[in-house]
Structure formats: C-alpha cells, structure tokens
Design brief:
Blueprint: E1 2-10, E2 13-19, E3 24-28, H1 35-45, E4 62-68, H2 73-81, E5 90-96, E6 102-106, E7 109-111, H3 113-120, E8 124-128, H4 138-149, H5 152-177, H6 179-199, H7 205-217, H8 219-235, H9 240-254, H10 259-288, H11 293-312, H12 318-336, H13 338-384, E9 391-403, E10 406-415, E11 423-424, H14 431-444, E12 453-457, H15 465-479, E13 484-487, H16 491-494, E14 499-507, E15 512-518, H17 521-533, H18 539-548
Parallel strand pairs: 3-13, 3-14, 8-12, 12-13
Antiparallel strand pairs: 1-2, 1-4, 4-5, 5-6, 6-7, 9-10, 10-11, 14-15
Helix pairs in contact: 4-13, 5-13, 6-12, 7-11, 8-10, 9-10, 13-14, 14-15, 17-18
Length: 552
Amino acid sequence: MLQKLQIENYAIIDKLEIDFHRSLNIITGETGAGKSIMLGAVSLILGKRADSKVLMDKNAKCIVEAIFTNLSDETFQFLAEEGFDVYDELIIRREINTSGKSRAFINDTPTTLKNLEKISENLIDLNRQFELLDIQQANFHLAMIDTSAGINDLVDHYKKEYFEFRKKETELKNLKESDNQAAKEFEFIKFQFQELETLGLTSGEQKMVESELEILSKSEELINLSDKTNFVLSSNENSISDQIRSLAREWEDLAELNPTFKSIQEALVSVENELNEVISLSEEAKNNIDADPSKKQELESRLNLIYTMFNKHRVKNETELMSLHSEFSESLRNFNSRDEQIKNLEFSLAKLEKELRAKAENISSKRKKTFSPIAKKIMKILDSLAMGSSRIEVRHNDTNTLTANGIDDIEIFFSANKGADLKPIKEVASGGELSRLMLSMKSTVANQMKLPTLIFDEIDTGVSGEVASKMGKLMRNLGDHHQVIVITHSPQVSASAHKHFHIFKEENKKRAFTRMKVLNTEERITEIAKMLSGASPTDSALSNARELLDIE
C-alpha cells in the first residue's frame, strides 16, 4: 500500500505531500493543474528515466519519495535476496540533480533503476487508457484463471519442481556436451597419474637420496677418517684407549680410600666405554660405504627423475608432488563415475518429468472448469457498463510441452460489438473499451487475487453518467480489497471515494504552483457540483452532487 508520496521541485510542483487512504482515493482537478505531472513523478519511483528538464528550480535537486506499508511476501523476498534492509515500511526515493543525473534509493541504500522496476511490479499497477498492458498479457489471463480456480498453491508447487527439473536437464546437457573433452582430459590425467604411480615417490625419499649421494661423494675421505679414528683411539701403541684403561686401573687401587677416588675411577671406565662405542660406530660407517660406481649412478638417476617431475608439474617439493598424485587419482575416480552420473540423472529426469506431467494435467483440468464461469462473470460486469454486446472467450491450446505454467497456452479473446470477430485483447483499439474491460476483469478476481496499489488515470473518459456511476461503484468495491488511486473528471466516479483529493494551481506574479488538499464533505459537494455544471454550480447541480454522495 502506498501510504505517503512526497514530491519536491518537479515541474510545477514545488512541494507536495500526499497521505493516501488504504481504500479508494479519488483525485480531481482542472486540466493542467498537475494531475499528470504527479503521475510523472510516480513513474520515477517505478524506475523511469528523467533529466534536468523536470526541475522547477534549476539550481535545486528534485526529490520524489514514496513510503509503502503492508508489503507483500514477494516484496520482502526481493529485499532480502538483494541485500536491502528489511522493515515493515519500504521507502523508495529518487533524486535528480541540476545536471540531470539521477540517484535511486531503497530504504536509504543506493540502488539501480532496474531494481526499482523489479520491486515496483509488486507495489504499483499504473493503468492509463491505451496503456493497460497487464490485461493484454497472457500471463495475467493465466493468473486470473488460476486465482478463480483456487489453484495458486498447486501451481506454485508445480513451478518449484519444474525449475528443479530444468536445472537437472541443464546439468545432464552439460555432462553430455563435455563428454568428448572429458575423454581427452581423462587420457591426459591417466598418463600423468601412471607416470607418478610408476615414480612411487615416498615421503622423505628426496632428502635420503641426496644424503646418500653426498656420502658417496666423500667415501674416500670417510674411510680415511674412520681408519684414523681407530688408529688414534685403539690401534697404535700407547693408544688413547690403552691410556684411559691404564689410568682406570690405577685409580681402582685407591678407590676404597675415598669416594672421590671411586668416582674418578668410574668416570674413566665410562670414558673407555664411550671410546669403544666411537670405535664401533666409526668401523660401521666405514663398512656401510658402498663405493660401487653403479650405486652412485643409480642414486643420481633417481634424484634426477624426482627433480624432473618437480619441474614438469611445477611443484616445489615432494609433498606437493605426492598431493598432485592424489588429486589425479581422485579425478580418475570422478571420470570413471561419469557414465554412472549420466545414467542416474537420466533416470531421475524421466521420473520427475512423469510426475510433472501428471501434475500439469491435473492443473489443466482444473483450469478448464473455470473458463466458462469467468467469461460469464466478466460479461455480466461489462453488461452493467453498457457493453452488453461484448463477448469474452477463454481460448486454450494443449501444448503437450512442459513449461513453467504447465501444458496450457491460455489467452482471453474479446469482442466489443455484436457480430465482430473475437480478437486478442492487445488488438482492441478503443481506450474506453479497454478501460471498462480492465475494470471488469480485475473486479472479477478482486477479492481473490493479490494486486498491488492500482492507479487509474482517467480511464472513465468518454463514458456516460450512468456507466461512470457503475464504474465508480466497481472501483469502490475494488477499494474494499485493494488500495485504489483514481484520477478522474467524472463526478459519478468522484462520489465513490473513501478519500477525495482536489489538485489545483496557485499562481503568483512569477509562476504557477501545483497544490493539493483533502476535501471535507461540504467541499466534496461543491467540487462534484462544479464537475456537473461548471465553475459556478447551480442549486440543481449541488442537489445532484448530494444525491451522488448519498447526502440528504
């Protein structure tokens, strides 16, 4: 619901603030007072483009702000999905600066005109003669049928499953289209995997091979050092081991005399044991050296192969190379499961398509039952609007192809005159006929169908007083279920208002300004009387105005 509209510095509007009623709002005023200008400002909220030509004061910016309440679930969903702050109130603002550049805001967050267009679809339905686009669209016809049939929840559930079905179709298509490329990738990855599998690299192997090669490169030096160690420690006469052993025996003779002497003797024995361990390790190191040239060549070949794999796969160490080996292995497993994926997906799609078709046929059956009743309802209302010769027919084609709307191709055809061929509504030329048809169609489902704020701009132009009176009643009935804003020159329509606004021009020496006021009962009588008889209403016109307003 449009709760409030504020307009500043737009055309001949310097400042205007309107608090709308939740039901039927009527706006009247003389031609040129600013009614269409006000709608131009509303169009900015709907995402229309503008430039600096709209500025009344070329040195100040234009601001149009609308506050909406009682928001629909679709509006809340849009705000959440697009990342806007979500409140019970929605504020949309447009600003146009002196250079003509425009800025848009949703709940004080900058946004795009595209977002305004999207969100406004659930907020305002602007209807003008020859611009009643929604009733000309097959989607609106289908929405009317579904609402009348009471199957909106059924259709919504079907649509969710349908889009899941299409998602799986796309997934299957992509899998199949990538099959040739996948085969090439499979062979390439398989080759690389087998190459690394053959390499058989183990953790720590690189450092181990590098260490062994370093030892082999210094084998002669190591053998000499081992021999020298054994000679110094034990092989020569008066070796270190012999001297330590001799000292230990001498201290052993005195060990009983003093605990310190005993400690010295034990320490020397320990030193002798450690020297023997050094001698043993030195000899073992010497014996473990493999001076066979073929061993060195083998190690060098292995290390070169490891380095080659590093360079080939652009990795820095064996950990990364072993990780890549695991990735190749996982990729091969995924490739091997591709055929199974395709088969499972085909089976799933076949099952889902069968279920969808059954649901679509059920929806189609329920829709067909409403064709005749809804046509009769619309024609009954048209008859009350002096279009008794008009005909409505719901035409249907079973496409047999699953779409988001099921298997039905539905469009409402219309003929305004007796004997005339039924045609699609979009081919109806008369604005007056379109206006009455639109009002009839929307009135038919007003208490069932979710509709945004409905704005009607002089759709009653050219109709007689009696017809206008009936149109006013229809609009008031619409207002019982939805917010309706009507710009009109018809006194009969004006009399139906829950809230009556009068728009007028106020002039000073320099320029004219648009003004608006809410009319009280007496002011409404006078305004409607003027619409009936002119600027100076007669007593008869005043009496007629009271009668229209049902005031004695």
